[in-house]
Amino acid sequence: MPELPEVEVVRRGLARWTTGARVEAVEVLHPRPVRRHTAGPDDLVARLVGARIDDVVRRGKFLWFELDTGEALLAHLGMSGQLLLEPPDAPDEKHLRVRLRLADREGGALQGRELRFVDQRMFGGLAVVDLLPTPDGLPGGTGGAPPRAAEGHDDDGVPRLGVPSSSRVPEGVAHIARDPFDPHLDDAALLARLRTRRSGVKRALLDQDLLSGVGNIYADEALWRSKLHGERSASALTRPAASRLLGDVRDVMAEALAQGGTSFDSLYVDVNGASGYFERGLAVYGREGRPCPRCGAPVRREAFANRSSHSCPVCQPRPRSASGR
DNA sequence: CCAACTACCTGAGCGC
DNA sequence: TGCGCTCAGGTAGTTG
Length: 325
Known about the structure:
This protein is an alpha+beta fold.
């Protein structure tokens, strides 16, 4: 269940170890994870072999390798995808889908490791796509490389992940909104748009065309922090309440990132196969029946859009009607 | 433009 | 031992 913090952990590992490396060979072991590459697996391999990785960039839950060919290797982890850096003699994972052999970059920091895409449920995938100019002309994603990236924290303690080296985004990602860690996200415009939505506020948080990177876990956690039920109408939020909610989204994701992300099992891991530790920081998600950390009431689980929502029945009362108050 | 729904996938867990 | 069911859920595509 990788959401923005988990994808960013992976991006950092990939940027550290693969920038400057050249792709020597590619093996596609299952067609489904490359389905978004419409020209087929052979074409994907041909476009990758010989290319050099210049940068690793992220927007929301999408990440991509900028290549010196002018194209990008676009990756989405879906539900269960992993990008692992491993020695070539490591045994194949049960759900290994794509193997990329990388040549050592100068200095040998990569030490001949393989980049492997492993994905049990195959909701994720890889594709080689064109890079297109961003509509607003601003840099295209979050999490770029030096020298211009100035990783650190702003006054709110929120990670500012730097500016990517290009002003382009991969084809097919243009409709994905900027994410809460993107230095170019226009908060005021986002909040104004959020407050025009007629749907419940949780549904709006999960809309990747409005704000990207938020999934079911961090939506529930941010709503708990803001003491809002997810079915409250987005359009009925006051401006300060909407602003606080965005702040809570940023806070919970920043805390999760600092802990290496959230892991419930071995499905989400960093490039070295290690799990994050934020599960212990979760207040409501996956904690049905256990006490709300704020008031002690047992956490409630409700059906929501073919999945589940978790909330505190006392801190987050259901709205009186669908219109939400 | 917006909202709501479904298909796509596999494996763990459970009742019988 | 195994069958059938439910659940996990991000995204693309379709429908209204």
